[in-house]
Design a protein that fits this description.
Number of helices: 6
Transmembrane segments: 25-45, 57-80, 86-109, 130-156
Keywords: Membrane, Transmembrane, Transmembrane helix
Structural class: mainly alpha
Order of helices and strands: HHHHHH
């Protein structure tokens, strides 16, 4: 009652055990991204309830991260083998979000006073620095989680490429050896052996 549940298809004969575990790890990574990004939004709002333009941009970045994680969880839960368009959209949005998360985290830790002045916080300065550093720490965690999600999405795409509908490794076997010797005789002169 009320715990974290990762909804994913049960391992079937068409899904290998490692594919299943990668699938669950991808979902868990995106759930952690959801939690970290929503925490950053609440921390930013605790600095100033009605955010300044810089605060709005920071909240928009976290909202983009949340939207990407929700989209990834919903898509991968519905289709265990991602398609090309989903994969491309996820890669582009995740890379952009990760780059901006990393940049914001570096700004928070290197230029805390300037960043705090841009946010126009009405919290006591000592407390605001602590809150901003917590946001920066979560930003670093989100940066790492975004790249983990990218790596896991790549592995899921690889599994989708390798495993056909029967769960066999037909694609690998087909591309691993030369099919017919007579195919080589039609090649141009420098490539004939």
């Amino acid at each position: 009652m009320g715990g974290l549940t990762i909804i994913s298809p049960q391992p079937s004969s068409s899904m290998s055990r490692s594919h299943y575990h990668t699938h669950k790890a991808f979902l868990l990574t995106n759930y952690l991204l959801l939690g970290a990004a929503s925490s950053c939004i609440f921390l930013t709002l605790s600095l100033r309830l009605i955010p300044s333009p810089s605060g709005l941009l920071l909240d928009f970045l976290h909202a983009l991260t949340i939207a990407g994680a929700i989209y990834a969880c919903a898509t991968i839960a519905a289709h265990p083998s991602p398609s090309g368009s989903w994969y491309a959209f996820h890669m582009i949005s995740t890379v952009l979000a990760a780059i901006f998360q990393g940049a914001v985290a570096v700004l928070v830790f290197t230029r805390t006073d300037d960043f705090l002045a841009a946010l126009k916080s009405y919290v006591r300065e000592e407390d605001a620095v602590v809150i901003l550093r917590m946001t920066g720490g979560l930003g670093i965690a989100m940066f790492c989680l975004e790249w983990m999600a990218l790596a896991l999405a790549f592995v899921l795409r690889y599994y989708a490429y390798v495993e056909d509908s029967n769960g066999s490794l037909a694609m690998v076997r087909r591309s691993a050896k030369v099919q017919h010797e007579e195919d080589l005789s039609n090649w141009p002169w420098p490539f004939q052996v």
